[in-house]
């Protein structure tokens, strides 16, 4: 099935009957554009293909989409964000996909956001829903993230840690999570919920290539107490060190299980020594993979 590719640069409109608008029936990717080239484009296309397959999208012209994304990058400012949203298209009323035969991709661009030198984060109230059928997919149903980001904004924080219903660490509202302790890196397992981000995939490949220990598993928030370094990451902002984790121990309606018995202080601060070493390796690797793309932390 051929994907119709649209660009917001041409003031494209989308039908009010589109399934993305009505049911969130689709998926998306956000990409970093530097020096008019898209960073990690091959990984983005691979992830889009995987999401399409898992959601039952039949798309034949992935090469054409990649070419259109590269053409959009040439028109962008030097440091930009490119987003591609793929919808199942129009398809009549109701949830059935039977009438939806014309998927569309909408490409849009924006300015690259700046990063603070280190993040101040806390823990979200509420939990990520558990749905293995959607786990890892960057689908269009993002209400959980909208609500968690609203909490962060109200608290004046950069982001919030999101837990699953078993109180396991999963991610933040907009990024994947890594931490370093006891000579190893750790990151949450994402088989039941969360987004398997492109930058996370890049890092796991990097760790494997260089023989760097990284444990993927189920971890509670208490694992961060003795961490030396903590960072979150996504494909747009790259690696963002966490400087301070604020613990909501006295918030009566907080649904996460954090108690005074676990922590002696209302905040945990991280030295992030290992983040600096890893950032150097990331920069070298990205320049080796795609010399046209210059990576930096804003």
How would you explain this protein's 3D organization?
With 298 residues, this protein is of the alpha/beta class. It has 2 domains: 4-111, D-amino Acid Aminotransferase, Chain A, domain 1 (2-Layer Sandwich); 119-289, D-amino Acid Aminotransferase, subunit A, domain 2 (D-amino Acid Aminotransferase, Chain A, domain 2, Alpha-Beta Barrel), CATH 3.20.10. The chain contains 6 helices and 14 strands. It has helices at 19-23, 41-55, 62-75, 143-155, 198-210, 273-289; strands spanning 4-7, 26-34, 37-38, 79-87, 104-111, 119-123, 159-163, 169-172, 176-181, 184-188, 214-217, 229-234, 238-246, 267-269. Strands 6, 7, 8, 9, 10, 11, 12, 13 and 14 form a 9-stranded mixed sheet that branches. Strand 2 (26-34) and strand 3 form a beta hairpin. The radius of gyration is 20 Å and the shape is globular. The termini are far apart. The model is unreliable at 250-263 (pLDDT under 50).
Global shape: globular
Strand content: 25-35%
Percent of residues in helices: 25-40%
Query: How many helical elements?
Result: 6
Helix/sheet category: alpha/beta
Round the mean pLDDT to the nearest integer and report it.
89
- Could you spell the SSE succession in H and E letters? EHEEHHEEEHEEEEHEEEEH
The largest β sheet comes out as:
9 strands, mixed
């Amino acid at each position: 099935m051929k994907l119709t590719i649209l660009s917001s640069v041409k003031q494209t409109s989308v039908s009010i009957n589109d399934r993305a608008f009505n049911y969130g029936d689709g998926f998306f990717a956000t990409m970093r554009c530097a020096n008019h080239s898209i960073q990690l484009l091959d990984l983005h296309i691979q992830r889009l293909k995987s999401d399409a397959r898992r959601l039952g999208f039949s798309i034949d012209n992935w090469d054409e989409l990649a070419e259109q994304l590269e053409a959009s990058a040439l028109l962008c400012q030097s440091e930009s964000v490119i987003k591609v949203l793929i919808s199942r298209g129009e398809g009549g009323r109701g949830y059935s996909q039977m009438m939806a035969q014309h998927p569309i991709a909408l490409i849009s661009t924006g300015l690259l956001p700046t990063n603070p030198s280190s993040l101040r984060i806390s823990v979200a109230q509420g939990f990520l829903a558990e749905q293995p059928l959607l786990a890892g997919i960057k689908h269009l149903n993002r209400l959980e993230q909208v609500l968690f980001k609203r909490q962060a904004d109200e608290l004046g924080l950069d982001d919030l840690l999101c837990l699953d219903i078993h109180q396991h660490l999963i991610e933040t509202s907009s990024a994947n999570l890594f931490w370093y302790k006891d000579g190893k890196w750790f990151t949450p397992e994402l088989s039941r919920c969360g987004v398997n981000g492109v930058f996370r995939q890049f890092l796991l490949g990097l760790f494997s290539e260089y023989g760097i220990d990284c444990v993927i598993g189920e971890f509670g928030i208490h694992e961060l107490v003795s961490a030396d370094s903590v960072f979150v990451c996504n494909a747009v902002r790259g690696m963002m060190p966490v400087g301070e984790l604020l613990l909501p121990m006295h918030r009566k309606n907080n649904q996460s299980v954090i108690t005074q018995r676990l922590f002696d202080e209302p905040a945990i601060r991280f030295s992030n020594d290992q983040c600096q070493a890893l950032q150097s390796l990331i920069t070298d690797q990205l320049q080796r993979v795609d010399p046209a793309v210059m990576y930096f932390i804003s």
